[in-house]
Amino acid sequence: MATTNDLKNGMVLKLDSGQLWSVVEFQHVKPGKGGAFVRTKLKNVLSGKVVDKTFNAGTKVDTATVDRRGMQFSYKDGSDFVFMDTETYEQLYVTPETVGQAANYLLEGQDCTVAIHEENPLFVELPAAVELVIEYTEPGVQGDRSTGGTKPARLETGYEIGVPLFITTGEKIKVDTRSGDYLGRVNS
Asked: What residue spans of 55-140 are helical by DSSP H?
């Protein structure tokens, strides 16, 4: 148990009949009249839904213990993703629903963070950007430059993103894992 005075960004709270909510941001407000309160923006850990919630200052809130473990993606077993704990070498099977959009950027051997609550995986966090090879894209045409449109390109994971016209098959690029945007070429 904690109070609203102890809130920090990233803290996970257990609210509304056991649902887990992560604190995205919070603000203590002391109006000239009346009692102080805490205005928060909370994100549902499982669904990703973001809501605004206001608490009276000093209200007790139930905190959840979420263990963030450094893991490495090993392989796909059927539809499940298998991650290996980099410290204990234990394997953890994670469902595609839990992995979510991160599956679009996962390669075997890639490091990531898996959040676990009561032995249940909650979500998979990738680094902000990953380096992937273009598996296929239409060839560029003479005159294609960095200012211009984009074309579809299939990454080595099978996911398709938009890249500038001058990018060719076989090039290594940097991709933003939060938005799926092309960030630039990687010089090897």
From this structure: 96-99
